[in-house]
């Protein structure tokens, strides 16, 4: 299902990451990546539609993915972590780093939001977060 803007993402939730410009999903499968030999990560699908190999689990501490916290993405079908190391392409974009899947968790597969638009939490989330039984 498509998330409405402002809906918090739970730690442990399966998500799809879609590139807004191309409509393709972050995808992985059991093929070796060209530079590092780790698992290949690519773009797949059309207009946000893809397959089960586009699903990633949000790995974080707490209940929800906090915008200022570190997060990992674990591929739901192959269990690799979305990672980046020092391998760089010469073409087509000189200096672009290879993003790939790694079997083990490490400092190379922590991600943190660096820019974007902050969306206020939905009213449902606010009620859930601050509701207390008497």
Features:
disordered C terminus, 7 strands, Trefoil (Acidic Fibroblast Growth Factor, subunit A), 6% helix, four-stranded antiparallel β-sheet, single chain, 134 residues, mainly beta, three-stranded antiparallel β-sheet
Notes on the protein architecture:
This is SDF2 factor. The strands form two sheets. The protein has a four-stranded antiparallel sheet with strand order 2-3-7-6, with no helix packed on it. Strands 1-4-5 form a three-stranded antiparallel sheet, with no helix packed on it. It has one helix at residues 123-130; strands at 14-15, 25-32, 39-44, 56-59, 72-75, 81-88, 97-102. Helices cover 6% and strands 28% of the residues. It has one domain (13-133): Trefoil (Acidic Fibroblast Growth Factor, subunit A) (Trefoil), CATH 2.80.10. By secondary structure, the protein is mostly beta strands.
What's the topology here?
Elements: E1 14-15, E2 25-32, E3 39-44, E4 56-59, E5 72-75, E6 81-88, E7 97-102, H1 123-130
Antiparallel strand pairs: 1-4, 2-3, 3-7, 4-5, 6-7
What is the string of helix and strand elements?
Answer: EEEEEEEH
The figure for the number of domains is: 1
Quote the average pLDDT: 87
The largest beta-sheet arranges its strands as 2-3-7-6
What percent of residues are in strands? 25-35%
Tell me how many strands there are: 7
Low-confidence stretches: 130-134
Query: What would the principal axes of the Cα set say about the shape?
Result: globular
Tell me which CATH architecture applies here.
Answer: Trefoil
Instruction: Quote the distance from N terminus to C terminus.
Output: 34 Å
Largest sheet: 4 strands, antiparallel
Content-based structural category: mainly beta
Helix content: under 10%
CATH third-level topology: Trefoil (Acidic Fibroblast Growth Factor, subunit A)
Total number of helices: 1
Provide the gyration radius in Å.
16 Å
In CATH's first tier, which class applies?
Mainly Beta
């Amino acid at each position: 299902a498509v998330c409405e803007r402002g809906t918090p993402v739970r730690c442990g939730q399966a998500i799809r990451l879609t590139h807004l410009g191309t409509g393709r999903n972050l995808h992985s499968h059991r093929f070796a990546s060209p530079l590092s030999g780790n698992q290949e990560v690519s773009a797949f699908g059309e207009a946000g539609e893809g397959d089960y190999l586009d699903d990633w689990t949000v790995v974080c501490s707490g209940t929800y993915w906090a915008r200022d916290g570190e997060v990992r993405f674990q591929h739901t079908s192959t269990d690799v972590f979305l990672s980046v190391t020092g391998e760089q392409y010469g073409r087509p974009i000189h200096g672009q780093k290879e993003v790939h899947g790694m079997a083990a968790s490490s400092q190379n597969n922590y991600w943190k939001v660096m820019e974007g638009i902050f969306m206020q939490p939905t009213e449902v989330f606010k009620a859930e977060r601050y509701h207390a039984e008497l």
